[in-house]
Each structure stands twice: as C-alpha cells, then as structure tokens.
Design brief:
Elements: H1 13-21, E1 33-35, H2 45-49, E2 57-60, E3 63-66, E4 86-88
Antiparallel strand pairs: 1-4, 2-3
The structure holds iron/sulfur cluster (SF4) (2 copies).
C-alpha cells in the first residue's frame, strides 16, 4: 500500500512549548498584533498567511483572534487583510490571552 504523506507540516516543538507555557518568546523584538473585531469581516484570509511555526491566528466562535503569546510580529498577515483591521499591539499593553482562547491551538481544529 502506498504511503500517504500529509501536505501539512508539523508545528514546531518551539510553538508547542509556547502553547504549553503560555509564554511569548522574549527574543521577539516586534510587538504582537491584534485584530479589531469591529472591523474584521471574518474572511479567514489572515489565518492562511500566518506561518505554521508561529500559528497565532484562529477562528474562535464568530471571531478571528490573534494570541499575542504566539504572535512574533512578523507582519505577514497585515497586507493580505482586505479591510486593514490588523494592528500592532504595543508589547507593554498586551494582557495574557483569556483561558478560552487557549482551547483553539489545543483543539483538533488547530489550522497549523
Ligand atoms: S504577525 Fe506573523 S505571527 Fe503574528 S499573527 Fe501575523 S502572521 Fe502570525
Ligand atoms: S484577513 Fe482581516 S478581515 Fe479577514 S479574518 Fe483576518 S483580520 Fe478579519
């Protein structure tokens, strides 16, 4: 029987560590980003542009969210957003992601 290879790369061990510890990599210099939910049209485009090694953007109920602990600030999601509703979150202003947000990277629906 032929072997079937998954087209989806396995998330990095480093990402799993950030999820387990709920900690942002202190070496990341850029601030994390956030989505203005009042402007977001829930098109999911940004999710496809977030590199799997970071894997920070999720569907969460009717919202699309960025977990700042997982967001490196690489900015790859900004330009593809059709309504320009992704913004920098000054690192000193972010608060830990709420408990229910952490269910997304740990769920079977993790897109990364
Ligand atoms: S800035 Fe980079 S890591 Fe953060 S959500 Fe956007 S694509 Fe993902
Ligand atoms: S690309 Fe922009 S509008 Fe679409 S889901 Fe992401 S933040 Fe919302």
């Amino acid at each position: 029987m032929p072997c079937t290879l998954s087209a989806v790369a396995a998330p990095s061990a480093a990402r799993f560590g950030r999820i387990e510890n709920r900690e942002r990599n202190p070496k990341w210099k850029n601030p994390p980003l956030y989505i203005d939910m009042d402007e977001c049209i829930n098109c999911d485009t940004c999710i496809r542009y977030c590199p799997s090694s970071f894997g920070a953007i999720f569907n969460h109920g009717i919202d699309v969210i960025i977990l700042p602990e997982l967001c490196s600030g690489c900015n790859k999601c900004i330009e593809p957003c059709p309504v320009d509703c992704i913004y920098e979150l000054p690192a000193e202003n972010w608060t830990p992601s709420p408990q229910d947000w952490w269910e997304e990277p740990l769920s079977t629906n993790d897109p990364y």
